[in-house]
Amino acid sequence: MRVELGRAVIPSAQVLDEIKSGSDGAVCVFDGIVRDNTRGRKTLFLDYEAYEEMALAQMRKLAAEATAKFGVRDVTLLHRLGRLEVGETSVLVVVASAHRGAAFDACRWLIDTLKKTVPIWKKEHFADGAVWAAGEPFPGEIAAHKDAQG
Amino acid sequence: MRVDVLYFGTLKDLFGREQQPLDVPDGATVELLLSLLRAQTSKQSDVWRTLAVAVNRDYAGLSTVLHDGDEVALLPPVSGGMQSGCEA
Fold it and tell me: Is B64 part of a structural domain of the chain?
């Protein structure tokens, strides 16, 4: 299991090569990259920041949970912080497993859960200003409000 | 007793700071802390309805009781991973 939060470029191809093992029948990769627009507004770059100690702990927990829940052999979960340009990888999820079904399921669950629960935020910079991206609502058990939906 | 409040994302802009030592009554809960903080700012924000709170780096509910020296983080909805919006 490899889980990292850092500012260096994420070497997607290298991570994919390194995870493969003899007992694997499938490696599923989710490579999240910076798009050149949000709802048609031209993106210049993104700034990612995190509550780093908690985010890393949450990512480790997710990787361990995915391994147990889906019975996959190995998980790599990397997230980048700082300034990212269009086309760069912000998040990389790689799951190695004997069978493709579990690999797909674990990969999907990891990115979906990370996006809702790991304390990382991004500021989107456009030609005409910058905004904190509206995050997804917290799941009900996490939200700190009695009327929160989730 | 005193707790250390951390602000992230849009809350950092709302309060104009990243961190704040705050005196709270003994036995204060997360709910009480939030109401104290909310009274500190006159600015209206939807974030109060949507935030989560972490105490010592774990998500905590409104009824969680705080202790002296706790690190209490106010977390707006998270937006890590890739961009959302167009893919939905």
Answer: yes
The CA distance from B57 to B53, in Å, is: 9
CA atoms of A65 and A118, how far apart (whole Å): 14
- Cβ contact (<8 Å) for B80 and A118? yes
Q: Do B49 and A145 touch (CB under 8 A)?
A: yes
Helix (H) or strand (E) holding B39: helix B30-40
How many CA atoms does the CB half-sphere of B64 hold within 13 Å?
A: 22
Provide the CATH number for the domain around residue B21: 3.10.20.30
* pLDDT tens by residue, B40-72: 877 777 888 899 999 999 999 999 999 999 999
Query: Which H or E run includes A114?
Result: helix A100-117
> Whole-angstrom Cα distance, residue A40 to residue A38?
5
ipTM: 0.91
Q: Which tokens sit at A9?
A: 């470029």
Residues A2-132: name the CATH superfamily.
Answer: Molybdopterin biosynthesis MoaE subunit (3.90.1170.40)
Nearest CA in chain A to B10: A132
Across the interface, which of B30, B77, B82 has its CB nearest the CB of A33? B82
Contact status, residue A112 vs residue A91, Cβ threshold 8 Å: no
